[in-house]
Amino acid sequence: MMASLSSSVTSRSYRSGYSASLSPVNCNKHRSLSFLSASPQGLKAHELCVRFQRKSGRSSVFMQDGALVTNSDSTESSKSSLKGLKDEVLSVLSEAAAKVGSESNGQSQSTVSITVVGASGDLAKKKIFPALFALYYEDCLPEHFTIYGYSRSKMTDVELRNMVSKTLTCRIDKRANCGEKMEEFLKRCFYHSGQYDSQEHFTELDKKLKEHEGGRISNRLFYLSIPPNIFVDAVKCASSSASSVNGWTRVIVEKPFGRDSETSAALTKSLKQYLEEDQIFRIDHYLGKELVENLSVLRFSNLIFEPLWSRQYIRNVQFIFSEDFGTEGRGGYFDHYGIIRDIMQNHLLQILALFAMETPVSLDAEDIRNEKVKVLRSMRPIQMEDVVIGQYKSHTKGGVTHPGYTDDKTVPKDSLTPTFAAAALFIDNARWDGVPFLMKAGKALHTRRAEIRVQFRHVPGNLYNRNTGCDLDKATNELVIRVQPDEAIYLKINNKVPGLGMRLDRSNLNLLYSARYSKEIPDAYERLLLDAIEGERRLFIRSDELDAAWSLFTPLLKEIEEKKRIPEYYPYGSRGPVGAHYLAAKHKVQWGDMSLDQ
């Protein structure tokens, strides 16, 4: 139950038109006020929250301590609003009670059917089905829903359930009824075998979906967990033979979205022959990660950061992605794309756009995506001299020999595909003119991490540099947002070491998520699947956004491939090519993850 009401902070809603409590982190917690205990039977807390938000038009955020922050502009109005707030909610409750009475046959008006196309693949088994179960466990899915697996493999419903059950975990709060919930969830999972380009097989799927929908308004979500060369065939068949006739139909498309501007535009054109733009949900799972979503909250809801978020105070920004393993038998796909397409053009560039965008008009999806597109269109063409590419080679350490990239049997022996890339990018606008944005991504490096590092400028006329001889590079402040693993936000500051002398030390103001929050952070796929079901497009990529991203990287990729640029080789498990350090030095930058006090 809500402990208190507060109007001392002005804020917009966490989701456009929804309360913050609707996030997958907290779907069924803190959703009612103390006078809501008499809610009608059958009315779930999250339904009440949505209906209330839509009815009242209020913009509110439920805080961690249970307080409700509204957009009231004065203390006087906040005091008088409590009664009105109560009346509005009770009115919603009355309407809901009447609706429950009119639906005494136990059927609600709508249902959601989720079809995982490519259900026998690794992504579906390891990510999509576990994410759907987590949403079900947290009561984030509608009361009536059905999940269908669809792929070419011959399989029964029971065999699908056995396959899926092996990847489901009771990680969520480790509550006692997890096994029970798992059984209930698996009863909602079914399977249909068919070809991805068969109208007939999708028509058969449509018949099965209708049986489960039972005459309700049918909303249908198709998740394309299949290779990109069969996207269009599957979309064509699903659209013409298995679309909803009285509700919405949405399609989630996994990356890669083409290999360059030309193939991406062709894919978009083909998809739009069968779907409207608002039906296409291009998923980049990095946008669903907790710390990436928190990026705009950190910046726009904390007064201390927004004034500093410009060329005047920021010296450089670094986006770092590293994996401590290679392709390991999965090089066939990777060799066709490489690290620039696989990581930099989508994951890191999307994070950069969120980081650098201007304040959007609202938290509406289109307003946010408009600002991201402006950033991408303002970026300077990437020059080859501002790029370093590398490829890992075999290395023996501690008596263990790790194979090189071309030692992978699925990779051609003469492959020049980069497994590492570093680049300096620039945004030619008033806020960021002259600030280098450095990206670095690689496989088979010394550690696994994904982080954003913001290095601030030196203190002008630093007294302590003159008196104590501090290293200027080490003395600058640095904000680090660690996306994974061990999610954290920390700020490096200079501090006096206790004692009679004057000696400075670098200390961290640290927010470690595992220490501050007891709940486990949900997987990015949970958040993105929930957004797709709710129709929230904020974390999905729009077609013009995709065009702008590809136009930035396509000339670079063509130059690398047409001129057969030879990558710099680096040992498996190292910190990457030496050239990356020279690139940073060229722009008077030191990689933040290379210092001893990372």
Main features:
21 strands; alpha/beta; 598 residues; 7-stranded mixed sheet; 9-stranded mixed sheet; 20% strand; oxidoreductase
Question: What is the strand content?
Answer: 15-25%
Could you say which overall geometry the principal axes of the C-alpha atoms support?
Answer: globular
Low-confidence stretches: 1-26, 28-60, 70-80, 96-107
Number of DSSP E strands: 21
What topology, given as strand order, has the largest sheet?
19-18-17-16-10-15-14-11-21
Fraction of helical residues = 25-40%
Largest sheet: 9 strands, mixed
Structural class: alpha/beta
- Radius of gyration equals 26 Å
End-to-end CA span: 41 Å
Chain-averaged pLDDT? 80
Number of helices: 17
Word description of this protein:
It contains 17 helices and 21 strands. The protein has 598 residues and is α/β, with parallel strands linked by helices. The strands form four sheets. The protein has a nine-stranded mixed sheet with strand order 19-18-17-16-10-15-14-11-21, sandwiched between helices. The protein has a seven-stranded mixed sheet with strand order 6-5-4-7-8-9-20, with helices on both faces. Strands 1-3-2 form a three-stranded mixed sheet, with no helix packed on it. β7 (217-224), α7 (231-241) and β8 (249-254) form a beta-alpha-beta unit. α3 (122-137) packs across α15 (524-534) and α6 (199-213) crosses α7 (231-241). The two termini are 41 Å apart.
